[in-house]
User: Fold these one by one.
Assistant:
Number 1:
Amino acid sequence: MSSIQAQVLSQISRAPEGRVFGYDALPVYRQSPGAVVKAISRMVQAGELKRLRKGQFYKPRRGLLGEVPLKDSEKLRAFLYRGGSQVGYVTGASLYNRLGLTTQVPRVVTLARGGSATSVELKTLSLRLVAARAPVNKQDVPALELLDALKDIRRIPDATPQATLQRLVLRIENLEGDLLSRTVELAIQFYPPMVRALLGLVLETLDQGDFQGLENSLNPLSRYKVPLDPRVWPLREKWRIG
């Protein structure tokens, strides 16, 4: 057995079962990538490893009744993290269901991350990968989730913009100072004017955050077609929403 293969076996022996990893998770890969690829391939052929998709593998977990299927959450994790850092997040209808904005459970899970849009089929899981509007890191994900919900406010299944915005107000109101400031910053840098207007409306209504910075980022002649009740949102006209 070559020293590279021995190192691969040693490093994989310490990996938990059912955890997806790529070549770059093995320190020896940087030293000899070709030998590592061959060693992994032999382990796949021997059934010691399973291939999730090209370049992604896992040690199968065995139960009393045989091999335990890989969890969907672990399949998602393989697309959301790289080298231990978060590079993507769940968005779309799956996110809006988790936030309590819709009761619909989608068949396809949408992930926002760097790169171009594509679709991936993983047996029990269908994924749609879309380009994130802003660079993704763990700290910004809660802000990006809220901004995505505002962006899609007119397209969230089984929900009206009025009901959606009222639910989002509770989450925006509970944002801590630094995260609230970051949400405003991301909105101004990366999101369309309608999102900035809605966020500004909420912040001025709550009398918190830099809603003036959001207002200054908008074209004073533009209007944003989002049906909201003026009795609930008396500042709606100021933000030219409706």
Note: Residues 3-68 form a domain with the Arc Repressor Mutant, subunit A fold (CATH 1.10.10).
Number 2:
Amino acid sequence: MAFELDRVILRTVFPEQRLYGFQVANIKDKIKQVATCSQTGKVNEELRFEMMNRYYHLMDQLKKFGYDRKVHPYFTEYLVNTYGIMKDKMAIEPEDLSMNDPQFLRKMITECMYTDKVKDILIILDCLVYLAKKDGSSIFIQ
């Protein structure tokens, strides 16, 4: 979930950019990098403004679910580095449908995760569910 939320945020801010090496934790640096011409070093202020605007607009939306842009980008990075990501999820099998069920995921989080991390992981889940509904997609992009 942490990795997926990071990717959704990054795809929103950088819709046409390859996201290799991008994390929400370093998003302001990446916005500056993307908006800067590699040949002249000149910053395309209009592009930088568009990306920053998308970022702040999204952060305002996620704030309603408890997302703190000074905490959660680093927390998601910690979760991915500590627990890894789900790999090889080619197609959802019938028994895997629960992986896109927010109630099932909420139950798994509260039952299986360390108590001190549950609150923040539930915030990540709530944000991911909100963005999936907004985009008309599943929680986990295939």
Note: Residues 93 and 99 are 10 Å apart (CA to CA).
